[in-house]
Amino acid sequence: MIKRIKRKKTRTKEAQKYVGQIPGTLIYTGQKANKNFIVECFDYTKNNIQETALVNIEDAKNYKDTESVTWINVDGLTHIDKIQNIGEQYGLHPLVLEDIVNTTQRPKIDEYEDYIFVVLKMLYYDKDENIVIEQVSLVLGENYVITFQESEGDVFDTIRERLRLGNGRIRGLKSDYLMYALIDAVVDNYFSIIETLGNKIEDLETELFAGQARENTNIEVQQLKREILKVRRAIFPLREIINRIEKGEHSLIYQRTLTYYRDVYDHLIQVSENIDIYREMIWSLMDMYMTTISNKMNEVMKVLTIMSSIFIPLTFLAGIYGMNFEYIPELQYRYGYFVLLGVMLVMFVALLFYFKNKKWL
Amino acid sequence: MIKRIKRKKTRTKEAQKYVGQIPGTLIYTGQKANKNFIVECFDYTKNNIQETALVNIEDAKNYKDTESVTWINVDGLTHIDKIQNIGEQYGLHPLVLEDIVNTTQRPKIDEYEDYIFVVLKMLYYDKDENIVIEQVSLVLGENYVITFQESEGDVFDTIRERLRLGNGRIRGLKSDYLMYALIDAVVDNYFSIIETLGNKIEDLETELFAGQARENTNIEVQQLKREILKVRRAIFPLREIINRIEKGEHSLIYQRTLTYYRDVYDHLIQVSENIDIYREMIWSLMDMYMTTISNKMNEVMKVLTIMSSIFIPLTFLAGIYGMNFEYIPELQYRYGYFVLLGVMLVMFVALLFYFKNKKWL
Amino acid sequence: MIKRIKRKKTRTKEAQKYVGQIPGTLIYTGQKANKNFIVECFDYTKNNIQETALVNIEDAKNYKDTESVTWINVDGLTHIDKIQNIGEQYGLHPLVLEDIVNTTQRPKIDEYEDYIFVVLKMLYYDKDENIVIEQVSLVLGENYVITFQESEGDVFDTIRERLRLGNGRIRGLKSDYLMYALIDAVVDNYFSIIETLGNKIEDLETELFAGQARENTNIEVQQLKREILKVRRAIFPLREIINRIEKGEHSLIYQRTLTYYRDVYDHLIQVSENIDIYREMIWSLMDMYMTTISNKMNEVMKVLTIMSSIFIPLTFLAGIYGMNFEYIPELQYRYGYFVLLGVMLVMFVALLFYFKNKKWL
Amino acid sequence: MIKRIKRKKTRTKEAQKYVGQIPGTLIYTGQKANKNFIVECFDYTKNNIQETALVNIEDAKNYKDTESVTWINVDGLTHIDKIQNIGEQYGLHPLVLEDIVNTTQRPKIDEYEDYIFVVLKMLYYDKDENIVIEQVSLVLGENYVITFQESEGDVFDTIRERLRLGNGRIRGLKSDYLMYALIDAVVDNYFSIIETLGNKIEDLETELFAGQARENTNIEVQQLKREILKVRRAIFPLREIINRIEKGEHSLIYQRTLTYYRDVYDHLIQVSENIDIYREMIWSLMDMYMTTISNKMNEVMKVLTIMSSIFIPLTFLAGIYGMNFEYIPELQYRYGYFVLLGVMLVMFVALLFYFKNKKWL
Amino acid sequence: MIKRIKRKKTRTKEAQKYVGQIPGTLIYTGQKANKNFIVECFDYTKNNIQETALVNIEDAKNYKDTESVTWINVDGLTHIDKIQNIGEQYGLHPLVLEDIVNTTQRPKIDEYEDYIFVVLKMLYYDKDENIVIEQVSLVLGENYVITFQESEGDVFDTIRERLRLGNGRIRGLKSDYLMYALIDAVVDNYFSIIETLGNKIEDLETELFAGQARENTNIEVQQLKREILKVRRAIFPLREIINRIEKGEHSLIYQRTLTYYRDVYDHLIQVSENIDIYREMIWSLMDMYMTTISNKMNEVMKVLTIMSSIFIPLTFLAGIYGMNFEYIPELQYRYGYFVLLGVMLVMFVALLFYFKNKKWL
């Protein structure tokens, strides 16, 4: 808990720094500072592929106007000067560069004349089972795709593999298909995220169905609610973006890849629907928890009521014959005590039956 | 309970396998493995009908370009190679084949140049009274309809019968009417599903109206809520699909069948409305349950309060005269004991009246 | 209660019969079997009117192509063959006939080339104060309106009267005005239905405002909720229907009657608004009921707490001096008993003041 | 309370009378019968103004076709024949006249060829602080505006004053500006209504924030909820009406007044927003009330628990030494009694600390 | 608390004054009376900048038709005559002037032929951590921007700095970019506002997660709810405004600045999304608080039940042997007392185990 709040405050400070800056000023707003800066580069045609790690940033421009398709992947957003350098080589608008390093950015698409800029969110669970949201920015040009990520490690390994092996369609098609493949990889990964969420919800539900309300069950429910909110916010705007691409009005997106984008769109709708169902289920969980608490209180009250209702009248009876009046005839009877015990037993049994009858026992 | 959760985990594993695959890779994501693979084939004109069980998959292509209308029904989606084979014979897009075997697919329609691909969900109750959702994919071509189901057993028997007997319009019309008939059979079946749901809700409501809140009533309410969510999700997207067909822009759908599709659409709206009403009723059930619990607690509290409020003061009185002070004048009175008993009786009756007056008795 | 549920089950059975039938098969799905079959017929021009009870169904076609306007009203939907007969005489589509006898139909409009088919719901309270929904189907042709009702008794008597007397515009205008008049009569009747509903809500509210929560108050609230749902569902779709008529694109609706349809539309909006307000008020009633229960429980708890808190300490004191220690100095004091009684009185009064102060008394 | 319900029932009876009447039948549905019938008339140009009380209704038509702008204000809707008379002089549609006297009318606009008919609601608080809704109907013609009100007393005095004094633009512009001025006066008055509502809400909130939940707080909250519903319903439809006027498609509305109508529209949006905020705040009030009740019950329970938990064990101890066993060694000890008192004191203090520790004290 | 309510009443009085005034009458409705009236003026081209404090209002018109871009910033809205003076010099519509001084205005845009009028809200926290909303009105003309603020102190200092230093694009572009820069500064400031809100929510959440429900937690939650409502209402309408500017239909907004306005729009969407998420989180907080209270009550009940259930039966036993029957055999046994103590101990331990088993201990 404490860690998250601290992190939050850091973000506040960053954001404060950001307020009032000249538009187009590059400020990295994420929490992954001091990371390495890595630029990997895939340059391929149908028959050839060349994989390089770009050490000298200046070399990036070599790939700009070639016939071959190039994927430049940049890991690490703290090296602002280098990102600015790449931006200048590829003629990116200052606001685009600002959005690349501002990781609190909402998923968005900006269509410029000779390139398309897309921001989306990559989700994964870290080792403490918290959802981590990492921003991925894509720039799609005529013959290239540039991706910017906050840190190393991503969901693109299968694409790297497919590029190297040259199986599937990927090597034979243009950069718009590459962008599709990258977005598809991100979206496919959403499925495993929401399934983990779904399993968490089911576990809690099973627990509550069994009537086991642990003390921190409601905290877990609240945390799930927040995770859902987080994921929703990262995923939902993407639908609109893909929808806009799919309409196919930008010349960089070819007719033949539209079917693929529509497929991604269908997947996103499915993810979104699941998220909304999970959300509704979480609200139900809270209801379940409340009724479980109420049921427990009912049970406690019943025990109290049964114990009190049985023994308080009996104690009263005992009190009667504990009085010190000089003349209480019953006290002199030889078997008075036993008669009274019998009466008490009868009362006891009668009350038990009464509560049994009320289904309190 | 346990079974469902286990099943869920299986699905997770399947889905994980699916992540990162090349688009167009066929992976069966359902739970009905090791089932038979059956292909039945109805080939008919107005006057003739021929019913065959296709043993050799390669024969499927014989029906493609004939004048007669052909319905090929495939049961069993685990035999991926055979499905791929049929797909190739009929020129289906790889993404279509992927969707056919991916049974977590949302109901959808994809319109291609020479065929229409529709995914919908068939619902039925299994023997444990759980709702089972089975995916049915339809491919409508010029002279054929191909249907893909996860397993044997479906709601199409009446259609088979009508085809064989040749009554009604079905034999005299084209493949678009056949597809309508198949969809109509699925939708008609939804009515019996939601009526079963409705009956379950009414039973619970009657129970709650009678003030009988069993311990697991809230669990049943939650399970109904989930069933409704499941059914909603399987049925609602279909409206949009039929709406698109009904707009009649695809050349495969003839003008004269549009009235029939509009009729299906009306039925779907009716089903959807019922589902939404049931949903609202279930939320009310939860409210009912909560008030029932509260009322019960009230009753418990009243018993406790009445018993305590009557006997605690009386016990106090008895305690007074059980004290051992040397000089307590009342104790010496000849009829002190009886006077006290009288006083106690008066108090007892007075308190009873008091509670009667408060309507607690 | 029991009766309603039974009725429901009957419906289920009917519906089951319906599933899987050939589209266009006529099956009556209502509960009003074995009723009479009555056909009344008004044939009128501006100057003449002729009122007949059609005994021979075949005579219906005589009115089809006359200059005069004809209103044929059919009561009783179980005589399917006769309805089919009328349908054939007037050239109605099989799906229209199916919708006429399927009384679970949602209000709808279907525009055919030479007639318009409208389904709506007539509402009234039966003698047990339950809302009954009866389906009325209208077919508007060039010179005729045919209405189909489930049973005798309707809201059209004022229209019959106006037709006979020839006052107002009705006799001078065409069949489209007749249909307007019929729909208007149905909609006007909605007002009295929702006013009865409104009165029921107000009564419950007054009761709850007075703090009187009877045991079955929540049941009544739930039943009102269901009634509202029922009424909503019967009325709301009609708005869309009138809206479509009002747009006036069908040649059977003349320009001059559009103002009247717009008036009906305004009335429907008003009814709908009232329904939504009542709905919100019912939700508030449930809240009211919950707080009333909570307040009552609070009151119960206070009585318990006051009684216990006053007498338990006093009983303890009495217990102290009931102990049998050989040496308890206070017991020997001459006025020990009276001093103790005084102390108890002081404690008693002090506690009373304490609770008075807390506003619990 | 009682009065409101009675009033309601009267309305029901009126409405019942209304059902089934010939469209265009004039029935006054308000509660302000037996009021005076007053017709005042302002006839003005830029330079002259003439103010008359029309005694003879027939004189109304004199103003119809003059060059000067005329405002005819009619107070009292029970004199149906006179209203019909005016309607005929100005050529109003029967449905318009029906709407004028039907005060349960929803705010609406009807555009006829040579006049515009607007119905809106004037709100004010009566002397019992209840919101009263009075219907105002406006008919805007080429050179005249006719207003119909249920009774004397309105928000138009400032406009009368401005007409008499001739300051501002009002005398120099046409009838469309006059209608604007009248509507603006009504809308301006809404602000003071919702501010009174706002103050009521704030007062209740302050009370609840201070933890003072009076017994009828929830009743007041419910009544506020109903007032908001009432006001919402009277005001919200007006937005759409002004919006339609502002679109300026009717030739009676001149280009130069559109800015003014847009201004009214902005005011209405502001009022609507406030209403929605107040509505949300009222729902929060109910929540506040519920938690206040729960907190109070918690407090009651704590007192009970503390008193019981302290004295019940002590009483038990006293009970032990009140037993009459022949051999209880402690009873013979010289200072047994004082030792026991000491033990009890220690227990008492220990329990106090325990509860203090739990923050229950 | 008291202060806020008083302030509110003042506003009511102001508003009352406002009702019924001639449209276009200038009335200042804010709370910042008696403030200074300051007019500062920046007049700049790409190469020069001149900063003046306008003492003589009449000088304002000198800047109207120059080539250079002029920013006139007016602080203090109580000097209505002076504002009217400026308005006349720049040809502003009377309704515009009315809106400038009416600070209860909703954010809005009015497009006139040669200027655009925008009203928006500047938010900041005052020293008591309350959110203050200050209205800022902007008038954008061909070569000028005039801003009107209620009082000194704003978020525009960075813009003043950038103007003076001439870095960034601002000096080289037209007045439409200046307006963008001003709006952007206001929107950027929203981020810090909502982050403060977010921190408050997180603090409360952490507290509730730790189970610490202070007595006034619900009051704080309610106040947060109100703050969110306030902020929502100030910010949300701005989206629509920027959207309208971005559509770029007004000739005063040049093509090249549209990208910047779109960027502001994206920021606003992000702020709005955060607000909606916070809102949902606050509702969850209330739920959390309710469950925390319920859990506490459960705990209290358990203590009561355990204490009562253990000691009431034991007290009964002691009562039995405190009775004064002449013949109670157990009393004569030598070790009767010790045996009974043993029995009591066993009961005590058994009950402890019972409650342990139920997880109440």
TrEMBL record, chains A, B, C, D, E:
It is found in: Cell membrane; Membrane. Keywords: Cell membrane, Coiled coil, Ion transport, Magnesium, Membrane, Transmembrane, Transmembrane helix, Transport. InterPro entries: CorA_cytoplasmic_dom, CorA_TM1_TM2, Mg/Co-transport_prot_CorA, MgTranspt_CorA/ZnTranspt_ZntB. It is a multi-pass membrane protein. Residues 187-234 form a coiled coil. It comes from the Bacteria. Its main location: membrane. The keyword Transcription does not apply. The chain crosses the membrane at residues 303-323, 335-355. Pfam families: CorA. SUPFAM superfamilies: CorA soluble domain-like (SSF143865), Magnesium transport protein CorA, transmembrane region (SSF144083). Belongs to the CorA metal ion transporter (MIT) (TC 1.A.35) family. Mediates influx of magnesium ions. NCBIfam families: corA (TIGR00383). This is Magnesium transport protein CorA.
